[in-house]
């Protein structure tokens, strides 16, 4: 079974974490995303084959935003942006593993994950504490694909949360949050296995996620669970003045 490539995972990433609006007319050859304050991934431009970034930058400025471009495997575009002084932001890895490899991971004793399909105030409070505020939760509400919130309990407390949605053969995990008092107790691994089970129940063959290169503990966890690097991307942020 061949792993999904970078292009496929980027498409699944956007489908399962949808921006508030998409504009492909203001700058032909570019996909301009408006995240309504929900973060860089949904508030950046992505090339649809164009390498001249001026039109995309102008359109984003006209909308009152500092231009931000997501760059994956496009060394020519990246070099052009670098030469124009655009700053690299958040180098990120795309990881994936076969669902079948993750569904049977055993959780430590006393750790259990369940699917939550209704909004609970306690869960919102946990996400708020982890920086996953109302704008990002609105993305979860907006997604029309099969989806669920995964709640993991340990020692009779809610130890962690994550969100998973299925886009065809790929299920993507987002918004992973483990409370400080529940770390190093197997909460994240239990949530990963629960996400894999949800993926399998909804026909997905692959479980994937995006993690910043700077997040070494998370990368170590995911690699230890058998997830492998499939692709990468970063952002380029325009200088405050000029291009």
From TrEMBL:
Pfam families: Acetyltransf_1. One of its GO terms (molecular function) is acyltransferase activity, transferring groups other than amino-acyl groups. Keywords: Acyltransferase, Transferase. SUPFAM superfamilies: Acyl-CoA N-acyltransferases (Nat). CDD domains: NAT_SF (cd04301). Residues 111-243 form the N-acetyltransferase domain. The keyword Transferase applies. This is Acetyltransferase (GNAT) family protein.
């Amino acid at each position: 079974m061949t792993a999904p490539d970078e292009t496929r995972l980027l498409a699944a990433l956007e489908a399962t974490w949808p921006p508030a609006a998409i504009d492909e007319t203001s700058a032909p050859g570019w996909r301009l995303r408006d995240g309504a304050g929900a973060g860089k991934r949904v508030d950046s431009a992505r090339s649809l084959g164009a390498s001249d970034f001026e039109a995309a930058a102008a359109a984003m400025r006209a909308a009152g935003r500092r231009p931000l471009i997501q760059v994956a495997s496009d060394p020519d575009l990246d070099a052009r942006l670098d030469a124009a002084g655009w700053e690299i932001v958040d180098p990120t890895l795309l990881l994936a593993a076969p669902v079948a490899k993750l569904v049977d991971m055993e959780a430590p004793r006393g750790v259990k994950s369940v699917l939550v399909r209704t909004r609970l105030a306690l869960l919102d409070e946990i996400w708020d504490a982890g920086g996953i505020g109302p704008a990002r939760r609105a993305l979860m509400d907006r997604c029309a694909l099969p989806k669920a919130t995964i709640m993991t309990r340990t020692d009779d407390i809610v130890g962690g949360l994550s969100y998973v949605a299925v886009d065809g053969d790929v299920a993507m995990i987002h918004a992973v949050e483990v409370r400080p008092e529940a770390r190093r107790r197997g909460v994240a691994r239990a949530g990963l296995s629960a996400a894999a089970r949800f993926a399998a129940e909804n026909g997905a063959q692959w479980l994937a996620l995006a993690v910043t290169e700077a997040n070494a503990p998370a990368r170590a966890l995911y690699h230890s669970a058998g997830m492998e690097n499939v692709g990468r991307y970063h952002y380029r942020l325009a200088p405050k003045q000029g291009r």
